[in-house]
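ZP: hey, is the EPU complex queued? I don't see it on the tracker
AM: it wasn't, my bad. submitting now with these inputs:
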Amino acid sequence: MEMMVIEGERPLEGVVKISGSKNASLPILASCILLEGKSVLGNVPNLTDVKTLCQILKGLGIVIEYKSENTIEVSVEDESDVIAPYEHVKKMRGSICVLGPLLGRRKRAKVSLPGGCVIGNRAVDLHIKGLRALGAEIKLEDGYIVAEADKLKGATVDLAGSNGPTVLGTGNTIMAAVLAEGRTTILNAAREPEIQDVANFLNKAGAKIQGIGESTITIDGVERLSGVEHDVIPDRIEAGTFMVAGAITRGNITLKNICVDDLTTVVEKLREVGVKIENQSKQECQVSCTGEFKHIDISTLPYPGLPTDMQAQFTALLSLANGNSVVTENVFPDRFMHTFELARMGADIKIENNRSIINGVSSLCGTRVMASDLRASASLILAGLAAKGITEVDRLYHIDRGYERIEEKLSALGARIKRERY
Ligand code: EPU
């Protein structure tokens, strides 16, 4: 096992280059199932989640060749297999993004059900609704989603769920619809930049998707799609996490290779806390903080709202604010495991339904804490960077799912952080 050992209270300074987006890379890689010929994907982060998906794709007859650490060449060699097995899906629930493209191209798919996880219920009813609307027959059998369709036909489908639109459900429906006959209209589609990136990638490959980034998307089916070159968008959650790192250590850092426009709500909320953020260009910004952190209330929402994937990091920051903050989690209402570990470091946080009430404290103290999921581990590392003494973050495998070389990047900014095996 590995843990991260952090000696806190060191202001971060310097420049950090943000990696490509995990949550765009996954569905873009999966959408290669739909293409004929080679695609070259650049700015793909080197993460265990990407490797898990590559394992699934290899099992599905896709040849994956790394041209460099972040550039992958992808081509389909054999289209006979249609199974995404439990052994991979259990490691990464995002694996469900192969369902739509398998059905769209191979007319059959058997994908393990993702089940629940520490961030809450990972329902699939909207994925199934989208694919059924296109004419697929779907059964749940022995823990698998089994989907079949001789021919998919365009239709109108409303993907509104009780917690808002579904990101990968929208992705799956788009990926199934691009080769379907006729026009598909998705109402209440997810507008996340990652879904926009998949749609832009597919359009480069020959798809006809309109309304990208809007809540109504139309897709006119085409006969075939061909391999293309594409650079994945920057990871807005990694960027947001480094912004909080700059702020929580009262540092002064510059983030490069970001998309400023995708971070509007995160930046607005950090400014309310008292963090100074200056955009140097559309791809670069400077983050600094000197005074106390002001208490604020935040609510997570689907894009363009504040991302649920930034909630845990904001919680770490607000636990050091000058008063009470209320954090409302609207996307995954049970996503609060990190608060119990932050409490072990001295944070004062109460949970009431889908809210956490944070009574800001003047300092946190390092201790051994356990990461429960990817963003929880980021929040514990952030807390450790600010805390007095030594923080040890256990179950490090979570962080490697979504943050490329995080300790190298933080060390280069002056953090005292190292990975230890035990
Ligand atoms: N939902 C349903 N029915 C469905 C699908 C979703 O009720 O069929 C509900 C979920 O239970 C949840 C809400 O809708 O309450 C949103 O879930 P969504 O489907 O949008 O999540 P996802 O597509 O499975 C992606 C990201 C998550 C991120 C969410 C929300 C990937 C691989 N995962 O998940 O990222 O939190 O969107 O933005 O893109 C992470 O990176 O740490 C992470 C968890």
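AM: back. Residues 61 and 77 are 5 Å apart (CA to CA).
ZP: great, adding it to the tracker
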